[in-house]
User: What shape does this take?
Amino acid sequence: MNNLSLKDILIDEDAYVCKIITNDAIKRRLLDIGLSFNTRVRPLYNSVSGGIRAYEIRNSLIAIRDEDAQNILVRKA
Amino acid sequence: MKKTIKIGLSGNPNVGKSTIFNYLTYSKQHTGNWAGKTVENKVGIMKNQKKSYEIYDLPGTYSLLPHSEEETLARDFLIFEEYDYNVVVCDASSLLRNLNLVLQLKEIGRDLVLCLNLIDEAKKKNIFIDTKKLEQKLGIKVITCCAHSRKSLINLKNELINYKSKKGISNETFIKYPEDFEKAIEEVSTYLSKYDLNINKRWLAINLLREDKTIINKVNSILDRDIMDFELKEMISNGQKNLSFSLDEIDDVIVRTLNDLASSIYDDVVSEERVSFKERYLDKIFTSKIWGIPIMLLFLGIIFLITIKISNYPSEWLFACFASLEKVLFNWLVNINLPPALIDLLINGVYKVTTWVISVMLPPMMIFFPLFTLLEDFGYLPRIAFNLDGIFKKCASCGKQSLTMAMGFGCNCVGITGARIIDSKRERIIAILTNSFIPCNGKFPTIIAIITMFFVGLSNNFSSLIFSTGILLLLVLLGVFMTFLVSKILSNTLFSGYPSSFILELTPYRRPRIVKTIITSIFDRTLFVLFRAITVAIPAGFLIWILANINIGEISIFQHLINFVDPFGRLFGLDGVIVIAFLLGFPANEIIMPIMLMGYLNTGTLVDYSSLLELKTLLIDNGWTILTAISVIIMFIMHYPCSTACLTIKKETNSWWCVLLSCIIPTFFGLLICLIINILFKGLV
Assistant: This one.
């Protein structure tokens, strides 16, 4: 079992989704935008004011707050 | 008799539904470049010789399981409404994600057409889609489109007209879930077949197994009985027990199945050569640690600068036009023998106030809105939200609040309605209550006039223009700061809670179409806001005339009121006239200044100032100092929202309590700051 979360992935580094470990409404939303098992995710930018990053997910650019990114378990390529 | 065909227009946010809707129905709905632009179901009519088509523009949705109010609207329409067929609009360059929704729409069994929009943009990104194959795979009609080209929109219209929709609800099984889940679905849906419901039974079975309360309630209200009878309850709990996964994981399994299917279809029909996005270069600058915020301020500053510089000319011209029209109108009213008092009421009351509002309000709006819209269409707004999210998070509110804040510059009502994009109710109310800290277009002209008179000097050169824009920008930042502060206070007191999760899509940059933007923003926003302003200006003009022209004893009611509140005003560095002007200016911020002049000159009607110098002399003669100017500007930024905004708040929150709060909070802070400044100032002198 790995303990790597999306938050730990560096900018411009590829990662693949393993599991989303939360049951809030956000989980469903993350799934809806295509963040399911084995989807490639890549952090692209940090926000100036911190706490949120923009990720490339399935050809779209989606910003996710760090608290939520922490609940997305990933593995590196 | 003509037959009406009902069509739903659905899709992910920001894929161009509204652009298509506008073309098909000749509407002038403004389209923006950010997720959540359409927050209401809109209906429009498309016609040809034989039939008429009712087209429903639904708010963008990522899925049929809604998270926010506007998504619920779309979901309810798609599943529970009667319609002939549904057109799902997809962005060709992010088809993979869009397919998720398409598959869910397939699952509800309604007749479906896929419109593959922005196909030209996809080609530019080296994404090629085999539409024939996509049609086969999905078993539905696929129409390609590029919403910026007329030709392709005409083609889309013809395709829709020629499309023969299939009646009823299909029961084919399009998506196969894991076997144990399928077994449960099968059993429940067979049981459900005894109900005469216009809903796909398989889909309903899945959602009963998911125990989706909102759907169960909705179905119950349609059936007018509880669908969850004993037998069904037993069946569902048995079905759930026999699953190889837990109830918590049911959504995972569903979505994983959908996503896997989407991926396999996508790989089959799309060939892409990955190129780096063009937006990456722009985003590197717009979100950069050093340049992100300065660029944001620069954009805002440029818009203010242009608005201030240009709007004076059309404003003066309008005043002149209305003045000559007034003479004509006056003569006509005299000719038809109306009593002089009534003529005075109509001309000096209603007509003066209304035309004043138009002359002052229209020009800056006609300049500000298109400029702002260009920025919006370009796709810059989500970047602002991204840059500022950290601060909003510290205030325990939502980063999307910066979008509603930005809308507030144009008109607070637009910002308040726009707050629907915020999923969490708590954060939405905070965004609504703090929106009036952002000075809207109606306040700008007066604020600018005061800045020019008292801080910059009246010389009309370029450096003083830059200087006044700078001061305006600082004042706007004060409003933004207050938004943060009050959001923070509210989320620690009345609306306490943790910041909720949300996702923010940074939509691709698109080249705005300048002419089209100008035309639509004038029609959609400017005229809309103007019309609303006029409807409140007319009764306001009436009331103001009555107050100023009916005397009790020696002086008018208006003067009595002024004298009465004068000591209260003095406490805050204002005076009686200013306080009354703010109170009577409740219908529209634009008329506050003219009412003040009325009070100072003790006239029975609004007074125009022919030059700022004249106005400054008048104000100084009536005891204005720099301190008064500062206090008035502060009160301009921080007082209760205008009457239209209050009604909008009532509509959006459905609570008078929120309206009351939205009035008390800014007024309290405005008065508090004025009081502190005055005490400090007087202590110093």
About this structure: The first strand of chain A starts at residue 15 and ends at 20.
